[in-house]
Amino acid sequence: MLRCLAMSNASSIPVTRLRVGAAADHRLDRVVGAPSSRTSVFVPTLNAAGNAFGVPGRFAPPAARGMRAWIDGTEELRLRLHGLGWQVPERATLDAAGLVISPNGETAIAMVSGDGATGRPGYRPQVRYARGRVASEVVQGVLFEEFAEVSRTTQLWFLMHEIGLDGWNAELALPLGVGKGGWITGWRERLQIVEDRPGGRDESATDTGPELRAPTVRWRDPA
Question: CB of 139 within 8 A of CB of 152?
Fold first, then answer.
């Protein structure tokens, strides 16, 4: 049943072009407000999350890998962006959601686990777990609680990642909306994040890949 739910949530999302290479890097820098943000902010953040994912502890419960990846990744993201003037929200509700907010309050970023389509051109990525009230309200621009740090026009981007023992796939994605049950209804923008490889970065990847069905992934009810 959960597998069917995963496929139905993914298949209902339209395919959004994934920017790659220099085009993705340029847009990442505009979102962050600083140059070289892929290598100075996002790659170190994802590496921190990946390192935490790989060390769960001998007697850790199954969810420990993902939890530790989110905690360490969020801390690293906030640390990297703090040097650029971004702020951790004072409101406990926003802080608990893992948000970090730009100096002018127009942009927020949060670490979010994605499915097997994350960071792949031609696919329909979906969040691995349904979004809660805070993310839903900020994305929809309908705030039922007064937050000093964000407004109805704040854009909430997801640093969406799929992490495994062999590495990570990732993208910075701007949700179009949050639908029934907390699932994303589509993406306004998708920006691929990759780590440089020895010998230079591969710029040959296409951003107009064929429409492919998202891989089946393991889903479970959100905590």
Answer: no
Reported pTM: 0.84
Q: Which of 159, 107, 183 is nearest to 138 (CA)?
A: 107
In this predicted structure, what is the pLDDT of residue 145? 63
- How far, in whole angstroms, is CA 69 from its chain's centroid? 13
Q: What is the residue-wise DSSP string for the chain?
A: -HHHHHHHHHHTSPP--EE-HHHHHHHHHHHHTSTTHIIIIIHHHHHHHHHHHT---TT--TTHHHHHHHHHHHHHHHHHHHTTT-B--SSHHHHHTT-EE-TTSSEEEEEEEB-TTTT-TT----BSS---HHHHHHHHT--SS--SS--TT-EEEEEEEEEETTEEEEEEEEEEEE-GGG-EEEEEEEEEE----TTS------SS----PPPP-------
Decide if 222 contacts 182 (C-beta within 8 A): yes
**Within a 10 A sphere around the Cβ of 164, how many other Cβ atoms?**
12
| Mean pLDDT (10-residue bins), the chain, 223 residues | 48 87 97 98 96 81 89 97 96 92 95 96 94 90 72 92 92 95 96 75 46 42 32
Q: So where are the chain's domains?
A: 2-193
Sign of the CA dihedral running 129, 69, 99, 108:
negative
Please give the structure tokens belonging to residue 136: 């839903």
Alpha carbon 177 to its chain's center: 14
Interatomic CA distance for residues 139 and 188, integer angstroms: 11
Sign of CA dihedral 37, 40, 41, 43: positive
